[in-house]
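Example (one chain per record):
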Amino acid sequence: MSQVFKELLRKVGSGEHTSKALSRPEAEQALTLMLQQEATPAQIGAFLIAHRIKRPTGIEMAGFLDAYNLLGSRVPSIKQNVMVLGSPYDGRDRTASISPLIALVLAAAGGHVLLHGGERMPTKYGIPLVEVWQSLGIDWQGISLTSIQSLLAKTGIGFVYLPDHFPLAQSLVTFRDQIGKRPPLATLELIWSPYSGKKHIACGFVHPPTEQIMIDTFKLHGIEQYTTVKGLEGSCELPRDRATILSLAGERLIIHARDYSLEGADIPFTSLEELNAQIQGVLAGEATELQKSLIWNGGFYLWRSGICESIAAGLQLTEQLLQNGKVKQQLAKLQEGATLT
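Predicted structure:
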């Protein structure tokens, strides 16, 4: 198999003028051989850095996604449309992550949300979602897929933890540290959905070419419900200090928090302890800048999930759910459910 992989590596790594893009089947085969580590460590590292330099195409990313869908574990369907919030696996270190709070808002309004990620990961080694959840009293480590399915159905929230549920992908993490750069797999992780039922995928991006790759991949996979967001640190969280550039299933939309009187500086991340204190304040109904960020994001995703007919209605419902304590109650419900798994 290492000989087979050598041909794939030669194709993408032969230089600026002679390298070629892989076909979709070739891309699937290449990632499959890397995930199963039938390619040698030297070959895997060489492929990841060569492919980063070449830049992936939508066709190649579609093939990579084929491999993830074939080999990765997914939560069984709960026969509900689920909002899958994709976040960079290497975490956040500049701005406060509120994706868990967004999930709680959607669940409090009757929606269903699935998140996924792993431990602290190169090259950024930022705070991953699993640690934010742990600070809120929810430990997603060691929970089976059937238990996650049950929690998703009963509480509206689930989380797929990479080391437990996709160890083949986890085994490639060490290569990220060794090559010192984010590989194209970092984009793949944002668009992959570890849910087998009907879903709406939300994913963030930083650079416009990445967004186009995502859109091309969704089209090739026949995925029609998606939202791409030029979000905070590549997450799907909407900023408040600048315009938010979005693609709603291919339709361009640009929105401003200021148009809803929610403009302001995005909350800097200082420590997990400080973030937890800020989150507890929001759950207690305190009017803070973090609360404004949550209202802005919660309102948008309530609209995109179909729960509310407009962003304005979503903003109003988010504020109401915070004021009447429904979001805090939703966290308590999830804590209780996770304790019983």
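Caption: The chain has a mean pLDDT of 96.
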